[in-house]
Amino acid sequence: MRDHMPLLHDAATRRAIDRRLHALRSDTRPRWGRMSVDQMLWHVNQAMDVSIGSLALPPGGPPLPKGVLKFMVLRLPWVKGAPTNPAFVATARHDFDAERARCLRLIDILTGRALDDAWVTHPVFGPMTGAEVSTLHAKHLDHHLTQFGV
User: Structure pTM?
Assistant: First the structure.
């Protein structure tokens, strides 16, 4: 079942994400939504920080059971304007170059871990395998890079 899910750990997926991140510019405008490009990078970085255990989310959970939400996020297509965790809503501007460098560094950290390692229990999705974490971030990055036309 995993073979149709994108994995950030797959070399081709990783190269494509890296290429798309390098195609962004500080003045790249979104095709939809209200985030600026620097805010989008901060947003995806916060999500990756949660998965590597370097950021804790405030208490409170999604309106759906964790297993249901995890299934939906990993297996179903993402729509424009889908709700996000309030902790990931960017309200300030950020340094574009610093956030892009942080994004590339976090991708290195994530993909440097083996898929069969033990991964941090996600505060929103519950226990996750390495493949699920890899898929989550491949889809998240793809969604937002598409939002910015790269």
Answer: 0.92
